[in-house]
Prior knowledge:
This protein is α/β, with parallel strands linked by helices. It contains ten helices and eight strands. It has helices at about 20-30, 40, 50-60, 60-75, 90-100, 110-120, 145-155, 170-180, 190-195, 205-220; strands at about 5-10, 15, 85, 105-110, 130-135, 160-165, 180-185, 200-205.
Amino acid sequence: MKIHTVLFDLDGTITDSGPGIMGGVRYALRKCGKDIPDESDLRTFIGPPLKEQFRDFCGITDAEAADMVTAYREYYSDRGIFENRVYEGVISLLKSLKSSGIRVLMATSKPEKYAKQIAEHFDFAPYFDFIGGSRMDGSRTIKQEVIEYVLNSCMIHDRKGVLMIGDRSYDIIGAKNAGVLSMGVLYGYGSPEELESVSPDYIADSPREAGEIISKINAGEM
């Protein structure tokens, strides 16, 4: 088996987007009259679909949660989107994958519009053959749905050589449900316990180690 396509999550995998996301959550909670939790609770909003996270965290209805997402976007689209940075080693990983002939795609639960803006702003858009995300209306947020959308858009039918890389359990579960390989990365926002609980095929401590694992797989050493 060889890896021919690598799908990347965005938040917590390519970029450290925590400050902007947590700022938007604080803004939405404050605007909607909710108490502001500590940072450990705010960090749970990084990665999963926002509407469901607001709903479950606040114990509110889907309609109320949708209103909170609207409030969140008031902050995020203006400021939070660029309160962000690319993790050290990620650009080198993307370059290495591209130079070895591997297709590089993005599959994120973040709205596709924002994902493309971030990729262009931080100059890593050229490394991606396709950037796929959720819709602005709140649909296509489940990670399996995003993966299916990206693979179908790129007409990729052989899933045995597809690897999904992400930092949260949602990424690994989505990969398993879509029938592709998975790699959890420990430098993002998912804890070792969270990732180990969903049994990814591979775990990497850094972007560099992620690249080394892929190289070993394709060399028949793993």
